Sequence to fold (125 residues):
Amino acid sequence: MMQILLVAAGGAVGSVCRYLVGLGALRLLGSSFPWGTLTVNVVGCFGIGVLAELIVARFGASADLRLLLITGFLGGFTTFSAFALDAVSLFERGAAFSSVVYLASSIVVSIAATVAGMLLMRSVL
Fold:
């Protein structure tokens, strides 16, 4: 039961953070492109790289801490289901080029951010 509560608590905080990032992106950049989802995916991938290296590889942290931060918080924060819906929505609105740019940039930049997070932690620890 404790593990479920850890995932739920982390997920709740992560979801609120995702919502706030989405609002901020909408206000700053407008609604013509899913900037909020892209930002959350890239930041979330960077964060999972940092946490995977820091928690798991370097400090052998408890399963509970991994559940709270990686499964819970980042699971609530990252939005690949929203990513898929945004890509389809752009395409259906007739913005096929934007849809392809969004798909490609999300995948490439998110993977690069994951590697960057891991490399950052490896260089400072």
